[in-house]
Amino acid sequence: MAVLTALILFSIPATMIPQNQSPSFYLQRYPETPGHLILALELDHFYSSIIFLTLITLFWINLLLCTAGRFSRQIKLRKKGRYGPDILHLGLLLLIGASLFSFLNRQEGSIFLKAGDTMILPSGRYLNMEEFIFEQYPDGRPKSWISKVNISDSPETEGETFEIAVNRPLRIDGLVFYQASYRSASRVGEYESGLMLTSDPARIYILMSFFIIFCGLMLTLFQPRRRKGVNN
Amino acid sequence: MILSLICYFWAGLSVLLQGIFFFWSPLRRRFLVPFMNLTASILLLSVLIYRSVKIEFIALTGTFESLLFYAFCIFLISGIYGLQKKISVKEVIQFFISMTALALLLVASSPLVSKDLNPPVPALQSAWLILHVAFSFIGEAFFAFSFVTALLVLFSRDETRMKQYDALTYKAIIVGYPVFTLGALLFGAIWAETAWGAFWSWDPKETWALITWLFYSLYLHFRLYARKSVRICSWIAVIGFLSTLFTFFGVNYLLSGLHSYR
Questions:
Q1: Which residues of chain B neighbour A217 with C-beta distances below 8 Å?
Q2: Where are the domains of chain A?
Q3: Residue B207 has pLDDT above 60, yes or no
Q4: What average pLDDT does range B165-169 have in this prediction?
């Protein structure tokens, strides 16, 4: 619980300080000591700093020990307890582990393609930008950005056509394509589509942990409660 | 627009009547207040449905609409609470809950909050977003309830009353916590991954939602395992709710980040 409190206390200042700027930005904005303190404590990139990672590790170990303790007590006493909180805690353990895995292995990139451009995917297949559609509401606000792309085995063969739109990414060959932005092409009135690519081997584990957490929450909510809790 | 005016009028009337009942008890009727509150919630819901039909999308994407939805949830919870038979219903709780909802409606009516009715931009066209917003506010409405009862614990001198208020705080949080976790954190993360390409970006609003969640986690652990005093737990429930308010208003107007188009 002390770790929980520490996490809260340390997270608050970091939300007040803009993250991931250059060192000179902090020294200018917070002159003298505060600026140096921010840099020394790594508050400029707090969520990948030593302090934060240490806290998370402590939290993880703490959670692991508590969960293991509760499990062994329940087995020893051979009584049916409430498993909801334990499943929830297991889900959290997996989530933190998967997040760390994602933090170390996730890759991200971006590319601008205009209609007719082709790129080669790491899998060796080809992605061809067939068309980029930019729809607007009557008042000029954007309604949709849609990229029509064709995935084929070679530039000559006919492939399969997919749509990539905001909130509808394309998941293919272990990559995810997001409709991220657009910019004016060299010809007037034409646009180039800005795609963001990510590959995250941890995604499946994160989704699994979400499912476990969901199950844990529902069990906790709907299982009848015992009168007395176990000391944690 | 007329419909919204009726909403405001009705919600105001409900609170006013409850205020009068404190001093003039002969007028008090058992089911009048829950009836008023439930009607207020139905009126708010019809405003939201009307707006949804207009833009052909579920109108839950702007600050104004989310505040209306928030007030709708609170009035609904208050109304349902008022109809309970098993637990003793306290007028003072209903009064302050209705006040909270009315305060949210007043904030929604401020000129700072845009009431323009616009179909959503591409990033907001997502079922996950709707689930994210709806569940977050349903959870927060329970937290609002717990905030009122926790404050009453802190202000009450009477031991039995304190216990009753505390039991209600706990009940509200035990329901609000899973709903909030699901809506604000899980659905939010899933939406972020389909819209922005990452489950979590440590944007200030996300971090504050996490801080809120940590506060309520702390509450549950204090209350269930550490057996801290009723007073300490109530303080955490109060601070937890203030943290939801900061997540919603403070982050929007003071800090910048991905959620700033809300």
A1: 178, 181-182
A2: 1-64, 107-199
A3: yes
A4: 91
